[in-house]
Amino acid sequence: MNMLGFIPGAIINFIAFVLLFLPILEFILKDRKLNLIELSLLSLVVSVITIPLFAWLFNFIMPFSLTLVLLTFAIPLAISLYLILTKRVSLQPYHTTFSPASIAVLALFLISFYLHLQSLSAYFYEFDPYYYMMIPEFLLTQGQVPLSDNLVYASTETVVHGNETYQLHPVGHRVVPEPQYLTAVWYMLTFGPGHYDRYENSLVANIYPPLVAALLVFLAYFLFKDEYSNFMGVSAAFVIAFMPILFQKFFAGVAEQLPWGIFAALAGILFIYLALKYKEDKKYYLLAVIGVLGAMLGSKAGMIPVVVGAAFIAVSAAIDFVRGQREKIYYELPLILALSVGLSNILFYEYMGLQNPLANFLSSEVLILFFATLFSFFVYHLLDIGKDRLHTLKNRAYALCGLGLIAVIFLITPLGAPVLNYGLQLAGVGELGASNALVKTVAEENLHGDDISARFGIAGASFDISRITSSFISKYGSLNALPVVYVLLFFSLIYGIIYRNGRLILLLAIFIYSLSFIGLQKVKYTPHLGLVLGLAVCAIAGEAYLAQRENGIPRYLGYGAGIILLLLALFAVLSYIVGFFGFFIGGNGIPFYELANPLYYLVFGAFLAGFLYLAYNYLKQNRWDAVFGISAMLLFLPFALDNMDVIPPSLQHNTIDLANYSEVSFLCLSTKDTYYAKTFYCNIIPQYWYDSMTWLNSNMDNESYLFSWWDYGHWTNHFAHKRTFTRNDHPFVILDLEVADKYVAKNESVMASYMKSHNSTYVLFDVDLVGKWGALTYLSCVYNGETAAEDLPSESKCSADYQLERIWVPQKPSLQQMCSIGQQYGVYAYSSFPPRTYCTQIINNQYMLIFDSQTGKQISAVPMASGTFTAQSGVYNEYLLIYTKEGIADAPGRGYTSNFYKGFFLGELDGYTQVYPTDVKGFGVVPIRIYKRND
Length: 935
What we know:
This protein is α+β, with helices and mostly antiparallel strands. Among the domains are: 444-676, no CATH class; 687-800 and 905-933, 3-Layer(aba) Sandwich (Rossmann fold), CATH 3.40.50; 806-892, no CATH class. Strands 6, 7, 8, 9, 10, 11 and 12 form a 7-stranded antiparallel β-sheet that branches. A 3-stranded antiparallel β-sheet has the order 5-14-13, with helices on both faces. The protein has a two-stranded antiparallel sheet with strand order 1-2. The chain is globular, with a radius of gyration of 30 Å. The model is unreliable at 429-433 and 461-481 (pLDDT under 50).
């Protein structure tokens, strides 16, 4: 199926998801006087959240079917018809009054959606999305998601290992339902009942990340437009559209929870803000409930709008109390949200098949909302109770401090302990689990260990303060460290809160600082950090715009932060200009601009000139919102224009069969020499994985479990359509450690016995495990008690003993690095197992002979190139030594006796027969080998 084949279904879905909700949104937001562009996009936001929610609720009482989908749409249809027939809504002149800003945000919405859609195929290189794709498959083929499905090893056995006891139980695919029910609804509307194809399901599922990416652009626009100006809204939309780390995580293919979590977080934040800003109209409460439920039932990070919203409401109530003001909404809204979240908890735990779901009403999120409710209720009535004493600002401030002390005391009591523990858990998100060894081997679960500025461009961070001055030119913006951005935001916050009583800047500050604390620690939250960093830059610009219109010294808090932002933009412009001319004279190019093509450089120059011309004209008109807005956009201009590289191949992408691996692979090959487009079209599973999964689909039985490393479990379920022994959502980590133990430390007979007792007939070894070998050895060592679970992988001596030998050969050897064996000269190679060294000789510029430098004995090993290594003494070629069966006795390290080494490199595994591939057997390196037990 190609992109053009989606057009009929897209039209149907557009009518269902946009037009049916327009009257409802117009009724709620009538006082906002939104035009049809803004109303339609907001309608799409609401429908994307509510339609799958309704479908999930109906699925409690009836199977998923076309009837269920139609009933789901009957609710908004009935409400919309009622509003129209009773003339509560009607077409107004402002609906067709399209401002330049609304047209611009529509363009950014469409551009964002189109660009993110370019990576769409049924073979995107990810793992987790293929787990979630099984959920709509169950809905469309069985009408329900079964509580357990036997697609991963299922047992009720008790596993005792050391001092730990693990009670296993069958597991399935029931998770938070929103994104997957959305896919099922789309599929049903597109293809109708009685039809299912798993590759078409994959394509439909992967449309959701581009859509929510585009909706995220609109949400940023709506949030900033409402508080600052239309131009600031467009600026925020532009920044969020092209923030690089956000852009990459919303590719078609990343159909997992992360895109939904970020989208729903901002939607929930926006709707809570609107409810508080337009507090006189209770209809906005409904939007806040929709936003919070969309987050809670769509992502593991669903607590974000709840925690941020509760903090925002409580702080707002406190600020109003100090000012001698009060609002009922500060305790009404969190109470409504708490009851809504509590009800959703009951339904979700019932859905998950857990006992006594009513007991889960009081989750940590509900307690936090109740805490905000009680605090706001108390300060509201405290003004009445203590009106004789609280008539001065000083006394109210003292009273607030007293309340704060009471709150702290409450948190350390048994009643407040759940809230305190929840907060400490969130605050400690960056700490690696002390006893969870598996988590320490997962890249996205680890702490940041590098300079993350490349993911955010000039708006990014450099924590190496000592190198700031020396890297002023080469680092392109390293002076803009994240702490500087946060300091500027703090100045903007002080100005916004104290001098103009602004609440959006307060909400944004809570949102930005809290997510930054998490995002700066853990790799998996880097996209969240990208979102809040973009919002921070725009918030500084927005407050600076409002501050410059004021008089007096306080304005310089916000205005001064904006001036520094202008200086940062000026720095960016200068670096662009220097890079532009440098490119044409053979020097460094434009920072972060990947398109090393003269034509694209001229286009960049034209856009830069256009932006500067607009900024100059707006400056003459005293339009500071536009000046500050353009400054923010200039920081991300290279990332926006990088996407020009995608336009030519996108025309071909629209016509190929996206479910045909050969056509998808051919498109990748046609873009492999491009600078940027290949990141869209080449992020597909390798041919060798596709071929092996196809073989398993045709040859493996349906009852046994494929014994492989946990990374590939979802691929086995989806592509091979077979059972897997373990996968990365498996709740029983002990099974992952047992697999590592059998790959690394045990012999063939022990592994065969284990596999037989666990109904596994086939075992898979792959080349990717060479790079993951450190993780397997560490987990095996933990399992066998040779390494403590509290130790990091790098601290495990046992793991180091299991590593395969690597050697480093200098590319340009010095005289001291030359050696000789007999009459032949060679180059010293340095081993990863010191003090071993070798003398290497290259024969006919093709073969490397390796000799022990001490004994002169030739080593029976084949070097496998593994890249280069740079040290102070020069650049070295790195090789992995693959010892032959005859040379194993000379091999250092315990890894050469492992089942993985024998099965993957030697091609021999006692008690097993290699069944894939059939044409290459014995010693050597092939991407994947599959063995079958002989017993």
